[in-house]
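Section 5.1 Outputs to date
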Amino acid sequence: MLEGLDVNIQSLSNLLNKNERFRFDSEYFKKEYVRIEQHLSSKAFKLLNQVDCEIIHPSEIKREFVNSGVWFFRTQNLRPLKIESSNDVYISKEDASTLLKNNIYFGDLLITRTGANYGQTAIYDLTVPAIASSHVFILRNTYFNQFYLAVFFNTKFGRKMIDKGMYGAAQPEIAPYYLSNIPIPDFKLNFQEQVEKIYKTSSKHNENCIYIYSEVESNFLKNLKLENWEPKELNTSVKKLSESFALSGRIDAEYYQPKFDELIKKINNVKHDTLGNLVTFKKSIEPGSDAYQTEGIPFVRVSDISKFGISETEIHLNRNEFDLDELKPKKDTILLSKDGSVGIAYKVEEDLDVITSSALLHLKLKSKEVLPDYLTLVLNSKLTQMQAERDAGGSIIQHWRPDEIKQVLIPILPIDVQKELAKQIQQSFKLRKESKRLLEVAKTAVEMAIEVGEDKAIKFIKANS
């Protein structure tokens, strides 16, 4: 009677023994999930609730951000096997001192708890003090190698097991007790340490990438003689209403802060042009969350990009409906965020088979006065970030209007200087690419160990790292 149907029969005792939330929805018992869990359980394994392991759910806090203090670690700072330090926010040291449960330490395994990017994991391999958002779990254990554990959760096996435990359609979430019941392959310590070695080498490449890029940013400002410039934080600015409103259409005090006037004067002292004269603009689409799928063409949002690249997204769209070539970013296109975290710019290195959110503008050079790498550098610099702050500030959800973006002032250095800065940027990105490759080696090695054994996995590691 059930022939031809995708049916998975579970006994009531199985539901009661392995299902703390007593879930009996079909999604939880998909054949794919059951098959993977059975495969993992057929080998030597341990559950995290059987070993010395603590999964900490940080306290909810009132987010009152300050200009400097202790790093407040949010879900957007966590990407698969990578810590992203961009668009950072801070809380005061006084507030941080009351949140000891939320402290993140070197070697902690971090897992995003909620949102579209739930279940992403990475090792906190920085020495910078940080306070975790309540949307990020902190996992500490003494049985498994933490680096190996992080990689396992990012393999096709670990990822599917996390997906199985996700609940809540509008706001996906994963529970600590569920993570504690995922079967973890109990490989030999030597193999786990080999995975850790690859992970750390990848992290070192990424660290060097960031260091070189920061040097490029510094060199850019030095060439403009602005390396030590900090705007004066004055509280008052006198403007004629007839002149100021006619130009900007704005009458709020935030827009007319003296530091913005000072910035514009600095840029006006060097060769410059407006962004609208240098590039063409193209908008993408906003299909709405109802169109989100787990398979299809990847859908890239603002939370998926940084100045260093595009992260893998869990969200996809139906290819039959959205696979439109004119919407896909082409080589040397600059993606610029205009909503949410405004002013993030990334230059596409090759034609991409993705669709971007409408919150990401596609910029294409139409002037030969600037190089794409150089322009991206300028857009990510504090000179442009301050202009974004001026235009999009003053609201809870920031929105940078395209007509405002077109008026952004871009300082233009001599082309030979631009070429040298672009060369250094490419050196930085080469390290980033190698870092990403090594993480794929680590993931593949763990998957091979699960499928064909540790010995073959170790041979693979030696041949590719």
